[in-house]
Sequence to fold (337 residues):
Amino acid sequence: MSPQDLLSLLGARNTDPAVESALVYFRVRNRPEVEIDEDDSDGPVVGTQSWVKNSRAGIEFGFDDEAAWRGLDETQFGQGPMVLTEIYLYGSHQGVRPYQDALPFGLTLLDDRATVRKRMASYEATRHSYIRDTWDVAEIRITVSYTDDESAIAFVLCALREPPLPPLDYAIAPAPAIDTLIGLLAASLDDPAVESALDPLGLQDRIDRIEETGEADLLTPYGLLVNFAMPPKKRKQWRQDALLAGMTFHQERELDARRWPGDMPYGVTFDDSPETVADKLARAPDAQEDEDFSGYAVWNEPSLTFHVLYSTMDNRVMRVSMFAPGLWKEPVEDDDA
Fold:
């Protein structure tokens, strides 16, 4: 199958004859389906993604429930078709044979990283790089992963970029200035400055939840979590002792959040790559760890601890957190686990 024909399938429904023909062509046996709660045959839908592949052909297809993909209410999940949103084409990758048909954009599985970048030079303005490289081509994001020595391609991921969530049907108050929010770190919940900045965002409506969990969930509509360090013993005036420990700003759809509409510390944006974030901080992070799909970096600054969670697939920021100095600690693995 030509790479043009393959990429043209992204965004098509699983019921489209062209999608079915591609699955037959690559001898994929399974068909996509949403995951239903095993204890309730009528729902709810607990898994909106489905992957089908043929390891011998070196290809894998990823589908999303159409309602979930479009950001509709979860009551509509599973009521319609699924949409083809991702295609993996494997090279040197454990457990699968190399993809045999032609790759998109003239790439070959034997290309090293420098060669891949040359072949993708027409899209250089969109490149985000870190462990992998990504380029945006129209509505498709191309991610290339390499072997450890970067001498060949491990896989090419062709993914349809997520559509924006449906607009809110109500107006929201503007986000406070980032310097104002930084100034709230370590402030008491009873501090008038906290009330002035965060009450318009709905903080007072979550007081009971703060008392119970120490957290104010403002993910909808602000993409914001506010955490408080709670006193060990509750008393009638507990709000005086509850200190604002940190805030986390979320990209759209991250933990089902709306996108944080304001600025973030150091001018970091959700479109920044991990390398760009480090450039904006003007120094290497104090702690950093990368995994298969995500990573984090931490900077301990005099006024705050700055924590960035990023995707190592998209090479973009997923969440940004700031904490009152000394309140964030690097995770420690449990040796007994």
Summary: The chain has a mean pLDDT of 94. The chain has two domains: 3-160, 178-323. Residues 178-323 form one domain.
